[in-house]
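Backbone shape codes
____________________
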Amino acid sequence: MLSRLSSIADAINGPILFIAATSLVMLIGITAFMVYFAWRYHRRRNPHPEDIHGHKVLEIVWTVVPTILAFGFFWYGWEGYK
């Protein structure tokens, strides 16, 4: 898919494609959730909003998942660097 212009192209192209594919999936997912929530909680559909209090499991998930992704990106890039 990507041209091999050097002897380390395979070590570089793999992490770049992994990061690009993961970013694209996240972009599509986040955009879909954003559109859904904008539609679901529109002012006409929900004229009297309620306060939302903390949800510990959700907060842990949205902290742990990006951390795992960042370590995954780092590890894959590090393997190519070595």
Residues 16 and 33 are 26 Å apart (CA to CA). The chain is about 70% helix and 0% strand. The two ends are 23 Å apart (CA to CA). Helices lie at 9-40, 56-81.
